[in-house]
Amino acid sequence: MEKRDTGCGCEKPKEPLQQPSNNTVNPDGETSLFSIGKMDCPTEESLIRAKLSNIQGIYRLDFNLVQRILTVGHKPGMEQSILDVLAPLDLDARLATWEDTEGAPPAAKANWWLLGAAAIAALASELVYWLQGGNTWPVFVLALVAIAGGGLSTYKKGWIALKNLNLNMNALMSIAVTGAILIGHWPEAAMVMVLFTLAELIEAKSLDRARNAIRELLNLTPETATMRQEDGHWHETDAKQVPLGAIVRVRPGERIALDGEVIKGNSAVNQAPITGESLPVDKTAGDELFAGTINESGALEYKVTAAANDAVLARIIHAVEEAQGSRAPTQRLVDQFAHWYTPLVFAVALATALLPPLFFGGAWMEWIYRALVLLVIACPCALVIATPVTIVSGLAAATRHGTLIKGGAYLEQGRRLRWIALDKTGTITHGKPEVTDFEPWCGTQVDKVKVMTASLASRSDHPVSKAIAEYLNVKKSNLEEVETFEALAGRGVRGEIAGKGYFLGNHRLVEELKVCSPELELLLGKLESQGKTVVMLVGESGVIALFAVADTVKESSRQAIEELHGLGVKTLMLTGDNQHTADAIAREVGIDRAEGNLLPEDKLQQVESLAGHGRVGMVGDGINDAPALARADIGFAMGATGTDTAIETADVALMDDNLGKIAGFIRLSRTTAHILWQNIILALGIKAIFLVLAFAGEASMWMAVFADMGTSLLVVFNGLRLMRK
Ligand SMILES: Nc1ncnc2c1ncn2[C@@H]1O[C@H](COP(=O)(O)OP(=O)(O)OP(=O)(O)O)[C@@H](O)[C@H]1O
Ligand SMILES: [Zn+2]
């Protein structure tokens, strides 16, 4: 259990963001994170897996290659023994937490001078060999210098792998280089070793870029904040030291250092770092501010509401980093393939070295050489690295646009969505309805009706109730005491005032109470066909008054729906509101189908009934949409800056309430899939070509290393391309 120091003893620590949920859960188990400093190429992963997977008490292993984090689910108290098992692998393993992964350990320091000298020695060896027409002692010496300078670490890692009966790239390279030496190809052995080491270094560097892409978002928050001291002076303070409740000042043009609530001043704030929307938002006393956003026009004073490491932005970043650990389906497929590929090529190489000379009179030296080339080709590195780099770049791009994706799997699945179900209130509309009509129904005194209604409505958080309470504007001291107050899901509220029962609710409720009448029905029909929502105050003698409220459609909704249709995605509106209103709003924004009068479980059922027609996404703002959001293949939460629960429960959280982000997400998912397949075809294609060439004796060893290095770099850069999307 990890605790955050919120800087205030009485503050309850927030729950850590959820781990991706597709893991086996063991109720009495613990989860530990290990930082594996030298886990660069996926080859190290299989080494660790082989070591740990057979140990009693370990039930889960998750590798996050990009962050170099290994998550182990195990019986309590096993941390040290896990470290002991990992120690001989020499991978620099240590216990870690998500908080202290601050910039994952940098790639092993490259000794460029040594590598440069090794490269010169290798080239010189090649040159001398060519000038003197054969292997002379200077050729040996130069080649040995090159191999020692460039390849010792490869040999060391290769040896550890071989000892563990693991054929990783280092093992294959060590065998290939040693083999080349044994058959007298000295300069080539030297060249291959130097090139391989260089390739590894460049690859590690490019992975660092992907790794830091998300971290860089965190650098958006200033290190210091201007805090008011007890004596009223302003003082520049380390942002991490600012306690909750402190008063902080931010000048125009400055970035906001901490989450807070404005207490003084007016300004426009650019919230793009969080919402991806660069249109400034006006802020005044009482409004929320987010760390990392930019204060544009005026000076603001605000009260700090979250410690630095608890800011919305910090929590987003942790969520995305954890999301990188969950494997996308393609990645699992590729991993499985790689698992078989290397041993298979190794077997083929062995056969190539032995069979032709033994049975078909081939020349030994020639066929052994071809076998060695095959070994070089056997590395699946490019293939295995291609997927995580692409996915992580995609996740980073989405985060930059204010879309928080909770796992690579969702990014991959997004392009398959055929239906999007949308909630009405707060998703398509602003969710801030206003009262348009007030009609007393029976001859009760209007003033009394207002007080009764306001007393009930002010007890509820529902937008409709809030609108009514605001409209009636009854002084707090005049409100009646409400007893046994109760919210009736999808209907309204009830409570007792002065011993008498009252209801405030919709048509469904009125029908259930059997107090409807044809006259009422007529008026309801008229108001509803105008897109209004009607609720009624009901007393013991029947309906007392009618209130109609109308919500406005967001300007962005119409275009967002059009974009979805353009992508071939069908839309369905699901709402607890009446069918007339549902139809009116649906028509206004161009939604394909609308279903009204739905209770939360009906929304779930609607989503379920779509499941037969391809993947289904559901967009909602939380409360009565939760079951449907959970059932959908991808659940989208709107306006996640407001609620922590949205960040934590949804599969994809949209940081502001612009529906257009859904189409953006689907497009990004399609591009990601494109690049993924490009990468896989590229990696496999180049291998296939070289396999044939090597077999035909047309490929030399260092062509093979070049090809391998080139492919790795190509797929990494191709993947990083997504980051600019
Ligand atoms: N607390 C309440 N006060 C007043 N009316 C309510 C309340 N709760 C529900 N209602 C009535 O019941 C209807 C359905 O409510 P529900 O919360 O299920 O969905 P909704 O808010 O209308 O919209 P959506 O499903 O699109 O989010 C509301 O439109 C309203 O008429
Ligand atoms: Zn009726």
Automatic annotation (TrEMBL):
The enzyme's E.C. designation: 7.2.2.12
Alphabetical keyword list: ATP-binding, Cell membrane, Membrane, Metal-binding, Nucleotide-binding, Translocase, Transmembrane, Transmembrane helix
Pfam families: E1-E2_ATPase (PF00122), Hydrolase (PF00702)
Domain (P-type ATPase A) ranges: 220-321
Catalytic activity: Zn(2+)(in) + ATP + H2O = Zn(2+)(out) + ADP + phosphate + H(+)
Biased composition (Basic and acidic residues): 1-15
Region (Disordered) location: 1-28
Source organism, top-level taxon: Bacteria
Localization in the cell: Cell membrane; Membrane
Family, per entry: Belongs to the cation transport ATPase (P-type) (TC 3.A.3) family. Type IB subfamily.
Entry protein name: P-type Zn(2+) transporter
Organism the protein comes from: Microbulbifer spongiae
